[in-house]
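B., you asked whether I could sanity-check this one before it goes into the benchmark set. Here's the sequence:
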Amino acid sequence: MVEEIYMFKNESFSDFIEYASNEIIKIDNIEEAFNKLSYIITKYYRNSSIRFAEKFGKRMSYIAGSGNKMFIEAEKIKLSDKYFVFLENFTFNSEKEKDNFILLLKKVTSI
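And here's what the prediction gave me:
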C-alpha cells in the first residue's frame, strides 16, 4: 500500500479546505473519513493533534486522530449530538478561519 503525501507548505487556507473537502466526500464510512481528515489536518497544522470521539451516553469513545499527543489541555468542540473533536496546539489566523475549519469537520458527521 502506498501512503499518500500531503504537502501544504505554500498552500493557502482555502486550498487546504478545498483539498480536504474533496478527499472526504469520496469516503462513505465516517471512521475512515475522520482518519483521513485528521491526517490531512495535521499535515497542514504542523505540531498539532486532533482526536475525534463518539458520545455514548455520558462516555466518549475514540474514533480517529492524528498528531502527537501534546499533554496540554485540548479544546473540545461539539460537531453534532453524537460527535466531538479535541484540538491540541491549534493556532488559527482569525475567527473566520476557525469557523470554516469547524464547518469542514461538521461536514464529516453527515456521512
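One thing to flag: The first strand starts at residue 49 and ends at 56. Otherwise nothing jumped out at me.
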